[in-house]
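Notes to self after the Tuesday call (sharing in case useful).
The group wants a holo model before anyone commits to mutagenesis around the pocket. I volunteered. Ligand is adenosine-5'-triphosphate. Logging inputs and output together so the record is complete.
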Amino acid sequence: MLVMINSTSETAIVTRQLSRRFSIRLKSEGLAASFRNFFSPVYKTVNAVVDLDMCINRGEIIGFLGPNGAGKTTTLKMLSGLLVPSAGSIEVLGFNPFNRDHEFLKSISLVMGQKQNLWWDLPPQETFEIHRRIYGLSDEQYRTRIDELVDMLEIGDCLETQTRKLSLGQRMRCELAVSLLHQPAILFLDEPTIGLDILMQKKIRTFLLDYHRRFKPTILLTSHYMDDVAALAQRVIVINNGGKIFDGRLRELTDRMRPEKIMTVIINNGEFPCQLREGCRLIHREGQLFRFLVNRELVGELAACLYSTGQIADLTIEDAPLEEIIGQLFTAANASAAAITVSQTNV
Ligand SMILES: Nc1ncnc2c1ncn2[C@@H]1O[C@H](COP(=O)(O)OP(=O)(O)OP(=O)(O)O)[C@@H](O)[C@H]1O
Ligand SMILES: [Mg+2]
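Result:
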């Protein structure tokens, strides 16, 4: 289906029917087959991104999610002009990324958790200097920005140590500093917290929130850590096998996939005192602890009944973990793709 998306002055990124294919040369086993393959190679096509329509406004933080191999990094590379699309179009701040205009490059930054912008053998300080020249920052701009970033990221101790000797967490924070030095309007973050311990992940999330509050860049973030997504993303775009399967608020996703809440209650005398209506289901019991799946509209009623007994030691109400909800979305998407394939084969 062709969806026409019109960009406005509020729009930061628009993609229309964006697709990217890769052709992979297949390897053959055995000497004879390798010999044949050398003269008549066999190729396989991988559809990494398929007809992707996206519209992202300036200042939004988007969680860009998908399982391994879904096409996230390929999309970010196309949006930052490192890869040319096989079909479709992209506008980033009105630019075609693949033209790599100077003004465009000054407006974006791509941070990849698994790749680095810092020079391995130099201390971060020296990479910062190089970037300052590349982006033509004045002494004053450089000093103000570097002071601010060093302070926010707490990297004062790392600046003069060779990058190769920094810990992963120190290096990642220096990566962010160098990527933000030119104050890009758009920040592509590809798994910025990968491999970091929980405290460091939290530090980076807090930094990103703080940075966004101050400078309002548009952020497109991929992460397999749902805590990152829950803390940062105002909207999520989920892709699977290169195609979009969800675009909306996290709340909408949760409501659609898991209309129930999880209610956990500890009852002093260990006897459950309320009548359970349809829409409330006991899923776990251990001594005085009871856990239920409860339809959203019944949560208030059940909680009120429980409190009225005066026997409640503790009561918590939560959504299902985001990992589970997203996992369920991927499974549903794969199942419907399989169903389509079967019905096509049956035609
Ligand atoms: N340079 C390339 N040559 C051939 N195939 C590629 C290339 N880059 C990506 N692919 C393929 O395209 C698909 C999408 O890859 P991509 O790296 O975009 O996924 P991803 O969503 O970023 O996954 P992950 O969560 O593991 O990082 C995969 O099947 C991958 O093997
Ligand atoms: Mg990736």
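Two things stood out.
The chain has a mean pLDDT of 90.
The longest strand covers residues 11-25.
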